Amino acid sequence: MKPETRQQEIIRVAAKLFKEKGYSAVTMRHLATAMDIKAASLYNHIESKQDILERIIISLAETFTQGMKQISESNETCINKLKKIIELHVHISSKNSYGMASLNNDWMHLESQLTYYKKLRSDYENDFKTILEDGIKSGEIIHAKPDVMMFSILTTLRSLYIWIPKKEVINLKELTDDLSNILINGIAKE
Amino acid sequence: MKPETRQQEIIRVAAKLFKEKGYSAVTMRHLATAMDIKAASLYNHIESKQDILERIIISLAETFTQGMKQISESNETCINKLKKIIELHVHISSKNSYGMASLNNDWMHLESQLTYYKKLRSDYENDFKTILEDGIKSGEIIHAKPDVMMFSILTTLRSLYIWIPKKEVINLKELTDDLSNILINGIAKE
DNA sequence: GTCTATACCGTGATAGAC
DNA sequence: GTCTATCACGGTATAGAC
After folding, report:
1. Domain map of chain B by residue range?
2. What is residue B170's predicted lDDT score, i.e. its pLDDT?
3. Which fold has domain A56-185?
4. What average pLDDT does range A174-184 have in this prediction?
5. Domain B50-185 - what CATH class?
6. pTM of the prediction?
7. Which backbone phi and psi does B113 adopt, to 5 degrees?
8. Where is the DNA-binding region (chains A, B) (predicted)?
9. Which of A59, B4, B117, B159 has the most Cβ atoms closer than 10 angstroms to its Cβ?
């Protein structure tokens, strides 16, 4: 493990503050106080407040894109692909729950990178929907609206960052299995 | 239908802006421009920016509390209670998708009403969990962790405000039924 | 790499004329 | 009920000393 650079430290602390109050409500002075330095000193390590937001969001979004590429190109069944997607979200959300908050809530404050972010997101959703549609064709998945199914699963996965830090027990394998079961098989008996 | 008061109009327009950019990023000058008046004029109808946020969030939170009270006190089966909850969320989210954005994303910017809001939310979640636990006892619902089940269903319902306005067709009955089926019975065949 | 000092602008809100 | 004018404050960011 390389030691964390000062820039990485700033980004990590910023992400934590962004999660608590949102990008717009966090000031450079707050961030500086949390880092125990003066606001002006931050600018030796980052270019601007916007720069911090970009580094948080874009790297996460690209990680999801990469993960989805591997999953959608694999030869698994559709149900197994869905399980891999759930695993991907649990894994990333547990590693970086602060960053996930920005990804979910503050993407609209991106400036020059907004279009790029939107493309990554829409590509991801298209791949997700294709998996569901293939599953319907092959008979693995019920014949319901892919949009509604994707919405239901994806909003749950996108909210994991709220929920994972609250659980004392961080048995990620168990959480992945429980979620897979509930999202795929439902909660009703029989 | 009584005609909308100027105050109600301000709150409605503010909620729309809050949904797009978040409470902190919306300025009184933006809001005034959207209302086609000057910022100072807003203060004839509302006390402060905070006042607007409170009016949006607290009235919605209280509506949910009322709805949950009726449902949890009814003599329905647990599965039917869950269906009623889904219906409640679809109904409120379709009537006030802008306000739902603030309820979900900007509650932490409440000041004097923050504690009250948190109590309403935690009461709601406790009632929800009790319904699930009763369902497990009675054998209607699988023996899985109530926390995980509630998280999964509730995050989906809480995100409806993002999704409902995107659907051209606003057949709410159909959406309620589709969601009930997916959330309760899952998406896997058999 | 951090500091002090500061520039410059936008913020929420108020006073008082009309 | 809306306006203009204004206030006190806090926002991001830079310059230059150490």
Report:
1. 50-185
2. 73
3. Tetracycline Repressor; domain 2 (1.10.357)
4. 97
5. mainly alpha
6. 0.97
7. -95, 5
8. 27-46
9. B159
